[in-house]
Specification:
By secondary structure, the protein is an alpha/beta fold. It has ten helices and ten strands. It starts with a strand and ends with a strand. Bound molecules: S-adenosylmethionine.
Length: about 280
């Protein structure tokens, strides 16, 4: 007889998703579940019924495919608004927290149209920009050529499966990427792999917010992050000396009805320790 009352791990197995993904779905969808103290409890029949009407696997994989398609479509307008909406302050505020050295080899994962990539390339020896969207990369390529930057390599790849050997980079940046990722710890673990010992990961993203429309209109999978969850995930991915703080500037976005959101930005860093 299968168990009727399931814990988080058992429910994840039944749904065919990781426990991280199930925790995300629990925050965002009407999953039949109860929280008793710190533990989640699920009823097999209720979950199977919910699956039949909603299908959680389609929910997660379609969501990630949607992100790529979305950025392929919006690449030209993304670039224009990105340049207008984020003042030069954005890069300066990051670089004030994360000192760069001229000889560094840096990766910018989810580089988009290359806003941060360009600023990095003006300051370090080599920058590798990675993005899942070929259209975003096409604009990044044009931007680097216009700026005569020859120390940038642009690569079409998935953040969770980077085509680089272990210990490749001194710094790994990810600006506004993580809220599009269904399993942030998986991606942070991949960042840890490609970093050299003592290398630093730098995550810039939005703080927790309640603008639910970004999920449907901007293909965000997370409504921002709390400092505590970012610190915990960095630890889980193997980083130490985690630091999470407000970046000191906001992210601006507008929906199709002209409704605007101004969301605080957060900066999280961690270091890959010697093993
Ligand atoms: C909001 S944009 C941020 C772009 C850039 N970092 C910036 O700050 O302007 C998010 C970028 O992440 C890319 N992206 C989303 N999911 C990805 C994934 N799983 N792997 C690689 N890139 C991804 C998107 O294609 C998009 O270019």
């Amino acid at each position: 007889m299968p168990k009727e009352v399931l814990n988080l791990e058992e429910a994840s197995e039944l749904l065919g998703v990781s426990t991280k993904t199930l925790l995300k779905i629990l925050r965002e969808a009407e999953v039949p579940a109860r929280k008793i103290g710190r533990e989640w409890r699920f009823y097999r029949q209720a979950l199977l019924h919910w699956l039949a009407s909603g299908n959680s696997l389609a929910y997660t994989s379609a969501a990630e495919q949607g992100v790529k398609d979305y950025f392929d479509q919006v690449a030209p307008s993304y670039h224009e608004t990105r340049v207008q909406q984020y003042a030069k302050d954005f890069c300066d505020l990051i670089f004030a927290q994360v000192p760069l050295e001229p000889g560094m080899s840096v990766a910018d994962i989810g580089c988009g149209t290359g806003y941060l990539t360009k600023a990095l390339a003006e300051r370090v020896a080599k920058v590798t920009g990675v993005d899942a969207s070929t259209e975003m990369l096409a604009i990044a390529r044009r931007e680097m050529a216009q700026a005569n930057l020859t120390n940038v390599e642009l690569v079409n790849a998935e953040a969770a499966h980077l085509p680089f050997p272990t210990s490749s980079f001194d710094l790994v940046f990810a600006s506004l990427l993580l809220h599009h990722i269904s399993d942030p710890v998986e991606v942070l673990t991949e960042f840890h792999r490609v970093l050299k010992t003592n290398g630093q990961v730098v995550i810039v993203d939005v703080k927790e917010h309640q603008h639910h429309w970004v999920k449907t209109e901007k293909h965000d999978l997370w409504l921002g992050f709390s400092p505590a969850e970012l610190a915990e995930w960095l630890q889980e991915a193997g980083f130490r000396e985690e630091r999470v703080q407000d970046l000191g500037c906001d992210c601006y976005t507008t929906n199709s009805q002209g409704r605007a959101a101004q969301i605080k930005m957060i900066l999280a860093t961690g270091r890959k320790p010697a093993t």
